[in-house]
């Protein structure tokens, strides 16, 4: 858009949020609220986009910074008028119109801004304010009009008389002002008000004094102008955006069984014919392919899922990758850098961290796989654990293709299992296993006959001790407390 520079105010702390995080960085459906305002502005293609930052300026710049955005720093933050003044070094000489917006109105649309600019230009206006009607105008600046319908003042809630408070036409915080006029009016704005701040809204009064007519452009859908000042407004606006996102997804061919119960951030993409069950949260940089099923209670963040993936009830995926046709869960936990191949299975109570799992490999029950490379067509038995941490460092476990790992195996890393090997159930594997081998590492089973009255059954602790003595005598084991000879184990035997 020729002859329009945009200026977004984002320096305030947002005291009413009661937060350690600067207001404009609070997430709305997964993105900082200010990024929605920037997107809407950018879509209007202004000559320039400038942002006034102040509170936590470095964080704000990091979150939104891009080559096309200029920054002005407002320090300290003495009100919205003071914020625009802080951008004087960038825009004072700008000969066109300055579109000013607050950074806390993420529902604003590009179309509305374009219409606003169109109206301002058509009327050859030098100062136009976007207004709207709110059933409950509490907290907004009230629009005072003169007998000709021009705006003569904007009165802030804290400065408003009872008469002003009854006005339902409010200031959206969006203005278009001819650059040179804007900065000359601001020089006359003082801070003699309830908040002792330099209000941007006071340029209206100053323009009226100069006999410069101030026009109002009425926004029909007042929702677009909801400014987020509190946590409840944050929830309200997020709800509107989530609702829109769900509609867009369903429009694009995604089934949501209970739309109102799922939370899908604006940053997530989902392929056609995927079905999302109730109570699912999908956030961050998550991509879900086609024909997937995501069952209830699942939380997925920053993860990539291929086509035909099933994530069963109650699973959590964080920065993980799951390829086509794989099934995860129920109650599985994929942690950062878990990479699961195609047609694999990660079953219930299985946790995978910083590990690759090959195609068609199965770990179906109660397993921890951390810092491991598991090949293709491997079967990991129930209760298997990679012991990756020695208290100081993490070590890797490598299980090559086509291995069969029995139940309840511990791999004490670093350790490597050669291709096609079999690990006996209950083994503690501390040494590498060559390819095509059987490794068994557990104590040999012993069997004793129980005498009449021994074994399970109701008896006091004293009786039990007597029974133990009887048993040890009968089979010739050392008395309890006596020094024991080391037992030979299967580990020392050839399989
Ligand atoms: C402001 C308007 C009010 C309007 C409402 C619309 C003023 C005085 N009031 O009130 O008329 O109805 O927006 O949402 O302008 N900011 C700075 N520096 C500062 C103070 C604020 O950059 O020193 C930024 C904030 O980061 C925020 C924006 O300006 O993005 C608006 O500030 P906020 O405190 O939310 O103003 P409101 O009370 O909502
Ligand atoms: Mg506000």
UniProtKB/TrEMBL annotation:
Binding-site residues, Mg(2+): 104, 229
Catalytic activity entry: N-acetyl-alpha-D-glucosamine 1-phosphate + UTP + H(+) = UDP-N-acetyl-alpha-D-glucosamine + diphosphate; alpha-D-glucosamine 1-phosphate + acetyl-CoA = N-acetyl-alpha-D-glucosamine 1-phosphate + CoA + H(+)
Keywords noted in UniProt: Acyltransferase, Cell shape, Cell wall biogenesis/degradation, Cytoplasm, Magnesium, Metal-binding, Multifunctional enzyme, Nucleotidyltransferase, Peptidoglycan synthesis, Repeat, Transferase
Origin species: Desulfomonile tiedjei
Chain residues that bind acetyl-CoA: 388-389, 407, 425, 442
Assembly description: Homotrimer.
Entry binding sites for UDP-N-acetyl-alpha-D-glucosamine: 9-12, 23, 74, 79-80, 141, 156, 171, 229, 335, 353, 368, 379
Organism domain of life: Bacteria
Cofactor descriptive note: Binds 1 Mg(2+) ion per subunit.
GO cellular component, one term: membrane
Residue ranges of the region described as Linker: 232-252
Protein name: Bifunctional protein GlmU
NCBIfam families in alphabetical order: glmU, PRK14354.1
Active site: 365
Pathway(s) it belongs to: Nucleotide-sugar biosynthesis; UDP-N-acetyl-alpha-D-glucosamine biosynthesis; N-acetyl-alpha-D-glucosamine 1-phosphate from alpha-D-glucosamine 6-phosphate (route II): step 2/2; Nucleotide-sugar biosynthesis; UDP-N-acetyl-alpha-D-glucosamine biosynthesis; UDP-N-acetyl-alpha-D-glucosamine from N-acetyl-alpha-D-glucosamine 1-phosphate: step 1/1; Bacterial outer membrane biogenesis; LPS lipid A biosynthesis
GO molecular-function terms, A-Z: glucosamine-1-phosphate N-acetyltransferase activity; magnesium ion binding; UDP-N-acetylglucosamine diphosphorylase activity
E.C. number(s) listed in UniProt: 2.7.7.23, 2.3.1.157
Chain residue ranges for the region called N-acetyltransferase: 253-495
Location of the region described as Pyrophosphorylase in the Swiss-Prot/TrEMBL record: 1-231
Coiled-coil positions: none
Required co-factors: Mg(2+)
UniProt feature, compositional bias: Basic and acidic residues: 461-471, 482-495
Function: Catalyzes the last two sequential reactions in the de novo biosynthetic pathway for UDP-N-acetylglucosamine (UDP-GlcNAc). The C-terminal domain catalyzes the transfer of acetyl group from acetyl coenzyme A to glucosamine-1-phosphate (GlcN-1-P) to produce N-acetylglucosamine-1-phosphate (GlcNAc-1-P), which is converted into UDP-GlcNAc by the transfer of uridine 5-monophosphate (from uridine 5-triphosphate), a reaction catalyzed by the N-terminal domain.
Recorded family membership: In the C-terminal section; belongs to the transferase hexapeptide repeat family. In the N-terminal section; belongs to the N-acetylglucosamine-1-phosphate uridyltransferase family.
Residue stretches making up the Nucleotidyl transferase domain: 6-222
Primary site of residence: cytoplasm
